[in-house]
Amino acid sequence: MNLPVIILKGLILLPNNDIRIDFDNKAIIDEAEMLHDKKILIVTDIDTLEETTKELPKFGVVARITHKLELPNNKVRVILSGIERAKVINYLNLDQKEENLESIVEIVKYDKKIKNEDKLINKLYKEIDNYSKIIPYVSNDILGILNTVKTLDKTTDIAAPYLDVDLTRMNDYLCEINPEVRFLMLLEDINKAIEIFNLEKDIDIKVQKNIDDSQREFVLREKLNVIKKELKETSIKETDLLELREKLDELDAPKKIKTRIELEIRRYETLPSTSPEISVTRNYIDWLLDLPWNVHTIDNDDLIDVREKLDESHNGLDKVKTRIIEYLAVKKVTNNLRSPIICLVGPPGVGKTTLAISIANAMHRKFVKMSVGGISDEAELIGHRKTYVGSSPGRVISALKKAGSNNPVFLIDEVDKMLKNFKGDPASVLLGILDPEQNKYFSDNYIEEEFDLSKVMFITTANYLEDIPEALKDRLEIIELSGYTEYEKLDIAKKYLLPKICKEHGINVKSVIIKDEIILKIINGYTKEAGVRELDRLLSTIIRKIVTSLAKKRINTNKFYVDAKKLKEYLGYEKYKSHEKNKTSLVGVTNGLAYTPYGGVVLPIEVSYFKGKGEITLTGSLGSVMKESAMVALGYIKANHKKFNINYDLLISNDIHIHVPDGAINKDGPSAGIALTTALISAFTNKKVDNSLAMTGEITLRGNVLPIGGLKEKCIGAKNAGIKKIIIPSNNTNDFVELPNEIKDDLEFIRVNNYFDVYKEVFK
């Protein structure tokens, strides 16, 4: 027989009994009515914590739908009447949803004749009657039902649910086919229940002698003590409660929190061991006990020592180091200061995360990290309510528990990559976490108690400042970390990377000889990044090769020299040569400058025109802002064509094609404005643009040149490409001051306010 299956948890249906169930899914009911004569198989998963259907029982009950009622909340209420026992031959659709589960069953019956069946029924009736009279809280309504039953099979099935037995014992009744055996089981359970009741009655009498009216609140505890004496065993739960109370006594927390924990422990104490809430309550108590409510570390107030430790781990980065020293200095004087909310903005690999770790070490604080890149669910940060199955605190509280103190250095990574959708807006939640006016009263949905975050030093990181939500940006103290020049990378490699790598690989750094020109060759020929991550990996590769040769005893010397030949052997051929500028000066080609996640690069802009209707085509994966810059440049040229000696007919009778090479890479931003204008003028006047010249700056329809961002990275990219002269906006003078000296010495800078300044310089 093939029947649909309903899986019950915590309840067993026996034949000749009824059960009422409310369903969300009507499909299984409709299927039973239409295809299976209202019949359905009822099985019970004994392990209520097991969520899989792959280990289901082999016995169940075939039930019939006797009543069905459609409820207003789109649910359906049915009454199922157990008919007969069934053995499950096989379950079908195990890999699908639980409501699609079906089964192949075989009806099982006891066909042998029972001797003295009437006497057995009468004996069971008398025992149940005696049971209901001795135990006061048991109803005797069942006696009227049993009085009309004529078979032992039906009598035992109706009587079994009447007794107070656990789920496992009830399952034994279900799996037992022989009514005579079930009869003996019932007698055994009735006698056992009467014995337990009498024992509890004796215990109550003994307890009553040991207590008076002033000790009423200890009744349950005294009762448990007497039970343990009678049974001569120790209660595991009692031991657990003692441990929890010891932890509570040792906990350093506000009085409000300790009161809440005490209430939860009392609740946990009264819950029966079979209650589904007991594990939830126990887990909640553990979280409250493990959080560092008043636990904190002492800051290092030796400012010179802090600065030395920061300098030991990172080269440069003076702004953020100075800010940390200022914070500690003011705190040392006032002994009360809110921690700054610092945001380190810069390309990957410049040391944002490692700097945060170094700050924690220098200040003698704990360090925890939380990455929010790609998060769209705000519950990730502030947790779920305890009412949800499997709920837990958010990442903020979890990180503080891991830290073990309420004043760690807390790194929130990639705040510019958070998402916003139907699940929530995590950036808005982060506002309350980072706002000094609000985070003192931070409340996690799971913990439900306020936790003071004002002592935490939050450090956030981002790759792009413009991608940080404005409301969040307003709460952050922005410190930009730009990419490194090749000489800064050289210094970092010699002072930090090589010593660290050699120590990790068990080799003396003084025995590895790598000249500066070889390291520079690695930087320029094998890496293409603003930071030093790839450089770190390549140096590690070289050291591993040396250590491997040493382990194989191929090297019998105390000095290991890495020259150009060895470099090629270890790392292969150079990977990058794309930084070079055009070899010759060309008409219609200008060198622009771009800022990418890997640092600054030279961006050649090509323009050509041909017969058409004055339309413009832009290719090279250009973004909307860059396309608008091209339209502005063309509009400016048309308005001033006489000043540039351009025939206006050429502009309106020809189609213009603007292309930026490396079409697979997306490019956007307004800073290519003057480069686009120069390339267009070069094409229409047939004048070459010096290939050793590069330019950057936004242009307006009036020809004004506006400032741009990422000047340092663009200048580094220009220097690496062999550029000799750069045109920059005059309003970028402040950025120019911060350029490294080697960049200022190797490049000639032309500052401009209006495009005619550019025109005079380019087309002298």
Structure, briefly:
The protein has 764 residues and is α/β, with parallel strands linked by helices.
Radius of gyration: 40 Å
Termini separation (Å)? 97 Å
The proportion of residues in beta strands is: 15-25%
Q: List segments where confidence is low: pLDDT < 50 over at least 5 consecutive residues.
A: 48-53
Instruction: Briefly note the structural class of the backbone.
Output: alpha/beta
The coarse overall form would be elongated
Strand order of the biggest β-sheet? 19-20-18-17-22-25-26
What is the number of strand segments?
A: 26
> How many helix segments?
28
Helical proportion, percent range: 40-55%
Describe the largest sheet: 7 strands, mixed
Task: Summarize this structure as a short list of keywords or feature phrases.
764 residues, alpha/beta, 7-stranded mixed β-sheet, 5-stranded mixed β-barrel, 28 helices
